[in-house]
Amino acid sequence: MHNSSITGNTATNRYRWSYQVDLRQAQSIDVVSLLMPADKFATRFHIDVSLDGSTYYTAARRVDSAGGITGVQLDQTVRARYVKAVADRPDEGGQTGGQMAVSELAVHGSR
User: Using an 8 Å Cβ cutoff, are 60 and 46 in contact?
Assistant: First the structure.
């Protein structure tokens, strides 16, 4: 899967949609909450975190999202400056969820 919207194959119509926030400094994080519209949501997504904005690792996965508010408990408390929600599904036309849209993203934890 490409991280770029340019895959070199215009027939695929596939891309991985993501939404990233910069917390401006590293913080301890244990929960990420997403608000996604009822008609545009990822049924499967994961949360990536990073200290430097270039090296990311996956801190949690959700496989049963249905839109609305979704709270994601991270696998463990992490320190991160950058938090990214990455859609895994839907990844082609005709799937439940349409296309992921994020109305709000909140990061919870302690400084």
Answer: yes
Residue 49 is which amino acid?
V
Q: How large is the average pLDDT for residues 11-24?
A: 75
| Domains in the chain: boundaries | 18-108
Does the 18-108 domain belong in CATH 2.60.120.260? yes
Are 55 and 49 contacting, i.e. CB atoms less than 8 angstroms apart? no
Residue 93 pLDDT exceeds 70: no
Report how far residue 26's alpha carbon sits from residue 22's, in angstroms, rounded to the nearest whole number.
Answer: 9
Round to whole Å and give the CA distance between 26 and 67. 28
Task: Give the CA angle between residues 4, 71, 80 to the nearest 5°.
Answer: 55
pLDDT band at 9 (very low <50, low <70, confident <90, very high): low
